[in-house]
Amino acid sequence: MASSVFSFSLFFFFLLFSFTTSLHLCTAFSAQHSPLRHHLRHPRFAGHNYRDALSKSILYFEGQRSGKLPPNQRITWRRDSGLSDGSAVDLVGGYYDAGDNVKFGFPMAFTATMLSWSVIEFGGLMKSELCNAREAIRWATDYLLKATAQPDTIYVQVGDANKDHACWERPEDMDTPRNVFKIDRNTPGSEVAAETASALAAASLVFRRIDPTYAKLLVTRAIRVFEFADKYRGVYSNGLKKVVCPFYCSFSGYQDELLWGAAWLHRATKNPMYLQYIQVNGQTLGADESDNTFGWDNKHVGARILLSKAFLVQKLQSLHDYKGHADNYICSLIPGTPSSQAQYTPGGLLFKMNDSNMQYVTSTSFLLLTYAKYLTSAHKVVNCGGAVVTPNRLRFIAKKQVDYLLGDNPLKMSYMVGYGPRYPLRIHHRGSSLPSIATHPGKIQCSSGFNIMNSQSPNPNILVGAVVGGPDQNDRFPDQRSDYEQSEPATYINAPLVGALSYLAHSFGQL
């Protein structure tokens, strides 16, 4: 008992020390490099101020923070919230996933993975924003370390989603049940466990050089969590169906996350055990499937792109097939090629589905730029039924998607809040839509907020950098708070965009 108390105390001291060190370093940047103070030149050929958009895309995560906010918090209309989350278990911190006040572990882990991948691939281009990106990652991983502190147990949700959605209240006011839900040996959840392992492993690469002690903690935990995911296989939305559905049900199963998790652990550890795992299990885990969706639930495509690097750049011949699978995905996106499957709006936006379509736009743009990087390193191209697709073509397609998001569309509207002259004013987000604590110190009761939610008044608090679900298949966007499918932002929409904007800002001389 004494040793466990000592270990916990040491762990807590370590987190506190590493956080304050990170805070000090980033504070040095914040005073001079606040994204709200930039007045940057616009290269004529760039079309957009990608550096400004990058700064804001990272700043957004500060508006989603739960827990005790740090002194250098830049979105100042937010205040501390969820300070007793977990009760018997410390689950304070982390992110609210979207416009509500629930902490869902599955999308939070995916957000952390994609933020980390953004930094891994393009962090060297971020300049002063790199520190802010690391802080955004660490806010998630500190929480994920708490959620995975007990062996063979992961706390995957804080808050009763149904009761939370029955209220429209600020996170600072929330009085709905903060029930805690977990997966364990008896109630497995391989997809959320493997995604959590991916997040911890990817983040370990981000911190390996600047904080090796923290990085070691992350990768050690990732190894343990992945073992749990693989040993106790099951779908988390079966055992926790009443809690996580219809919000974050797993539709793609857990096979894709196991492959994805093994790929990240191989990249983070270089342990041949994970390469062998991929070789033995790859086919049964969906390596050869034609599913071309990539998002918080489905990692098939992401795993293919990630593993293709091991073949293209590291020359691991046993992963040759993943280059072919990645090429098939790319070909499915290119209009006019024999295997083209992707749908685009009349204005040119990739369109997957009505609900939060922009998440697929940002994740696809990131994958295109990342795969273009791998292909360039290996001096390779993609062959789509005789049509040669170069890395520059992939970059052009990604840029067109990002440019649409930033305002090159039929409505001339930026779908990033706070960027450009016209952007959504009535986003589906409780904290943004209700008066801040500073202007309205009194508590706003559960149902009272619906008067504002249903009104036409613009949100009083600008959630700078938030990217909303986006327009419909005909490029229409009503800008209505009640329309969560189109007007709600989410952390997993922004996370891959951070990497894409970093590349574009650097390419056009803005960083």
Task: Name some characteristics of this structure.
511 residues, mainly alpha, Glycosyltransferase, 3-stranded antiparallel beta sheet, two-stranded antiparallel ribbon, 19 helices, 5% strand, disordered N terminus
If classified by CATH, what would the architecture be? Alpha/alpha barrel
Assign an overall shape. Answer: globular
How much helical structure, as a percent, in the residues? 40-55%
- Unreliable stretches: 1-25, 27-44
H/E order of the elements? HHEHHEHEHHHHHHHHEEHEEHHHHH
Q: How is the quaternary structure best described?
A: single chain
Radius of gyration of CA atoms, rounded to a whole number: 22 Å
CATH class: Mainly Alpha
The profile of the biggest β sheet is:
3 strands, antiparallel
Strand content: under 5%
How many independent structural domains?
1
- Name the strands of the widest sheet in spatial order: 1-2-3
CATH T-level fold name: Glycosyltransferase
Q: What's the helix count?
A: 19
What does this structure look like?
This protein has 511 residues and is mainly α. It has one domain (2-25, 49-507): Glycosyltransferase (Alpha/alpha barrel), CATH 1.50.10.10. The chain has helices at residues 2-33, 50-59, 105-122, 129-147, 161-165, 190-207, 212-231, 236-239, 241-244, 255-269, 272-281, 300-312, 320-333, 358-378, 391-406, 430-433, 450-453, 484-487, 491-507, and strands spanning 103-104, 153-158, 180-184, 343-344, 350-351, 382-384, 387-389. Residues 1-25 and 27-44 have low confidence and may be disordered.
